[in-house]
Amino acid sequence: MMTRLIAGFATAAALLTAAPAQAAAAQAAAPPAPLKALKKQTSVRFTERTHIVAGRSKAVFTRRSGAFLLNSSGIKASDVTARLAIKAADLTDDALRWMLAPERTIRIGTTSYISGGYFSTRLPVDRTWLKVAKGPAAGVTGIYGQLINVAEARTLAALLRTATRTSYGYRGTITLGRLHQSSPWLRASIGDLLGKPKTAISWRLTLDARGLPTRLVSQYSSGADGDVVMDTRFSGWSGKLTIAAPPAEQVWEGDGAELPTPSVNAPATAPMAGGQVVP
């Protein structure tokens, strides 16, 4: 399974430029209006793992951590670091050794600064960051992270329209196409390459007493490779946070540089009909 995932990721990179009484109790215990609570926030931090689940097998594929600066429009700035859970022994080609390096992406507005990962061996020796106007929201590895960004008011609103209240928050299902229409973050992460827009993504959102997200678990089926399960934990809402562009002397403007375009054949960008959220 890991070999197929590595091959799919490498291909993408190569193309670069939950009884009536219980229901009543759940409603009574539901946290306050999450959308209203979210709109008051200025920042949040997160940690995340993406798993591939096939039968009884469950393997971590990516690990991410980062932070978002928020405003009334959504994500003002972001800083995301991702690492593929791949060992050198998994690689069959030395040209893929860049997959062992962590990737960090800082995004200010719509400008992305990417360091490491795919670009760890592709920048001038005196530069460590690639600057990309209207670049990918979370770099090359963003397509293998959480597709649903509940730090965006538009995205959270879209989820809540068809959600079911639970004792811990909300749960529901949204299609990839509807999510793509609602989420600027997703559009900036995968562009127009939806794979299958009717794909169902099931999700479960846990909220704290203030109505703010503490955990989001989402899942869809990736066909022969199994189910993709994305588990994100949130903390530090409206904590002190600064996100700034890298020093200019470390940045390469990247004239003529190619960015990986997500492949519609890669596992995380061509989801099939989704399954149920794993607890």
Note the main attributes of this structure.
alpha+beta; single chain; 279 residues; outer membrane lipoprotein receptor (LolB), chain A; LppX_LprAFG lipoprotein; signal; 18% helix
What's the arrangement of secondary structure elements?
Blueprint: H1 2-14, H2 20-29, H3 34-38, E1 43-54, E2 57-71, E3 74-84, E4 103-108, E5 111-116, E6 129-133, H4 153-161, E7 164-165, E8 169-175, H5 176-182, H6 184-190, E9 200-207, E10 213-221, E11 227-235, E12 251-252
Parallel strand pairs: 6-12
Antiparallel strand pairs: 1-2, 1-11, 2-3, 3-4, 4-5, 5-6, 7-8, 8-9, 9-10, 10-11
Report, as a whole number of angstroms, the end-to-end distance. 23 Å
Summed up, the helix count is 6
**CATH class annotation:** Mainly Beta
Largest sheet features: 12 strands, mixed
Rg result: 19 Å
In total, the number of domains comes to: 1
Per DSSP E runs of 2 or more residues, the count of β-strands stands at: 12
What string, H for helix and E for strand, traces the elements in order?
A: HHHEEEEEEHEEHHEEEE
| Fraction in helix | 10-25%
Mean pLDDT: 84
Spatial arrangement of strands, main beta sheet: 7-8-9-10-11-1-2-3-4-5-6-12
Give start-end ranges of low-pLDDT stretches.
14-28, 262-279
Keywords: Signal
Protein name: LppX_LprAFG lipoprotein
Organism: Nonomuraea soli
